[in-house]
Amino acid sequence: MKQIKTYHHKKILVLGLAKSGVTAASLLHKLGAFVTVNDKKPFSENPEAQGLLEQGIKVICGEHPIELLDEGFELIVKNPGIPYENPIIQSAIEKGIPVITEVELAYQISEAPFIGITGTNGKTTTTTLLYEMMKAGNKRPLIAGNIGTVASGVAEQAAKEDTIVIELSSFQLMGIKTFNPRIAIITNIYDAHLDYHGSKEAYIAAKANITQNQTEAEYLIINADQEETMEIARHSDAKIIPFSAKRVLEDGAFIQDGWICFNDEKVMPIAEIALPGTHNLENILSAVAAVKLSGVDNHAIHEILTTFTGVRHRLQFVAEVSGRKFYNDSKATNILATINALAAFNSPIVLLAGGLDRGNEFDELIPFLKNVKAMITFGQTAPKLERVGKLAGINVMERVDNVDKAVPAALAYSQPGDVILLSPACASWDQYKTFEVRGDIFIEAVHKLK
Questions:
Q1: CB 214 within 8 A of CB 194
Q2: pLDDT tens, 229-278?
Q3: Ranges for the Mur ligase C-terminal domain (predicted)?
Q4: 310 is in an annotated binding site
Q5: N or C: which end of the chain has fewer CB atoms below 10 A?
Q6: Is 149 within any annotated ligand binding site?
């Protein structure tokens, strides 16, 4: 990593722990900063904070006391999940104290260039595909960000010859100052996280930060079929590389005569792609554009796209039991993601759905429920989903306590040849800590049927 002197003897507050906070605090300590960590979880229940204290880092746990700012901090590194309405953050902004997220720190110390991927849906699939294709093409990728490994931890180990492939949320992108990926991708933009951002305009502005520091020396890969993404492109100084799954483009990534194409080159036939779902063609096109710009050959692209069948919890095939195929799409935390999942299958579907009630209705699902023969609901939104199920003409519905009980109920209403699909259309937080936990419970319940 770069041995930067930026933070030497600077007083820095790391607000919120989890993986990113722990890594950022340790890194700043190594860079010579005077680090204080503040986390809401009590110290006695906080092994992460206990470990940082053993390193000699000051730790304050149990609350976020506003008096902390009286200590004269010169920078705050904020956990992305902490909203900007937090009193400490609000006070820091008023005092002119810079607030960044750990991604910015990763960029400042990294010797390796970045490929950054953001968007409402498809980020993880695109990031994983891109990483796998670059690996197959011997381009030395490292994977980081929301997909698993903390960015600053990866950057600390990265060499100049590596490329960091990073999935980025809108929360992370709100806290960047100089972050500048060599290639940026915006997969798509739909209404999401409005409870955090306050408006769609603020959400789009956060996503647009991925390209705010790019110049004509960098690339912005953008969905050509969305006005929201094209508007971002119009305000970017980067070289724009469009992609479209709906029409032939003059350049960029697109589909023509049954082939994935990049500029004037045919890359591979779409019939040979293993990943299900028409929505995944957009993810594939954006990833192909990025790896072609990175010098990956078509053989490596073909090798991955003919074998890659999906990411865990994202339209993931789990098993076939008694002639029924079970798919785990627990990452479908919004309506659009569930629409995409439903559109991926022609077989009769038993849909498992429900979760956190954010105040929205689900009427947008109705046109896409035509193949759904039965619906198993759970969580806070069960009554709302049952209402749209009735409007869509679904006669078989059952409400259960949780995902574990939904699986055997779905089996009872299915027949050989059916698809049993967990695609909740909701966040998991009413019953489960994360969508990953929800998906793992589904997988375990499916294997119990065997």
A1: no
A2: 999 999 999 999 999 999 999 999 999 999 999 999 999 999 999 988 87
A3: 313-426
A4: no
A5: C
A6: no
